[in-house]
Amino acid sequence: MRDNDREEDHAHGLMNDLSAFEKLSLGRRRALMWFASAGTMATVAACGDGSGSSSSSSSSSASSSSSSASSASSSASSSSSSSSSSGSCVADSVETNGPYPADGTNTSAGATSNVLTVSGVVRSDIRSSFISSTTTASGVQVTLTLTLVNVNSSCAPISGAAIYVWHCDASGRYSLYSSGVTTESYLRGVQVTDANGQVTFTTIYPACYSGRWPHIHFEVFLGGLGTSPKGTTSSLISQLAMPAAINTVIYNGDSRYSASISNYSAISLSSDNVFGDNSAAVLAQQTPTMSGSIADGYTATATIGIAV
């Protein structure tokens, strides 16, 4: 079975929903790419007084962080770095929410149209289904902490925002949509950011399915879920790119991910139609920092930057 959320598959009603977001982000992405080509990306990435300037030490720190994250994506180390590790931040790129969001924007395959309105969706441990089943998704455990920051306010944390996370299971299937798991609702959940701008989810590592780099989807609702939440009312839709070193370890070391091996060998970050056109600074921030093992599970951290 093939669950493939390539760009052409996203067009089933979603492109209209996302067009506004894509127009808003286009200018920013082009600007970042222009500065990157001029060798000044670190200055753009550093979050200072909101004018785009920074001290030389901040610029050097951001440049070093971006370089470290890029290196981690292509090496066999057991961890990766993000630009946020040096205290800098950039605005995350707007990405597609794909064909399996269950956020009220795609009701194909008879899936529950909007889990954001279902009781029980606000939870930290998203490994089990919560609608009509309690099945727990099998896979390598990941404790994921996301920190939401305002790039226009020196990377200050944003509290009280809702973050919706969803991704495929160890076999590459999306609950509520994919064959065999249409009655499951696992690997979907919402948390509200605390005073530190943080949310934590307990989940499993996502598989690599045909045509896509391994990833986790998320949506940010700055004012919380509100009364009628759906993908089109979110403040940001984006994705996390799973680090190359960890992909290699898990897919080759855990039989539950055996189908991912050939799929992963056929894809790269540069060829991925979601992450492939992102600047180095944005991609570094989209890649979680991870440590741990298959036996003990992994911890992962990532910063989400948004302009408020």
Q: What is the rounded Rg?
A: 18 Å
In N-to-C order, the SSE pattern is HHHHEEEEEEEHHHEE
Structural class: alpha+beta
In round numbers, the mean pLDDT is 79
Calculate the terminal CA-CA distance, rounded to whole Å.
41 Å
Estimate the helix proportion, in percent. 10-25%
In the predicted model, the low-confidence regions spanning at least 5 consecutive residues are 1-86
Tally of separate helices: 7
Strand content: 15-25%
The major pleated sheet works out as:
5 strands, mixed
Would you mind describing this structure in some detail?
A hairpin with a 5-residue loop joins strand 1 and strand 2. The chain contains seven helices and nine strands, in the order ααααβββββββαααββ. Mean pLDDT is 79; it is low at 1-86. The protein is 24% helix and 19% strand. The protein is of the alpha+beta class and 308 residues long. Helix 4 crosses helix 7 (280-286).
Would you kindly provide a brief summary of this structure?
With 308 residues, the protein is α+β, with helices and mostly antiparallel strands. It has helices at residues 7-10, 14-37, 41-45, 56-74, 244-253, 260-265, 280-286, and strands at 141-150, 156-157, 162-166, 188-192, 198-204, 215-221, 236-241, 289-293, 297-306.
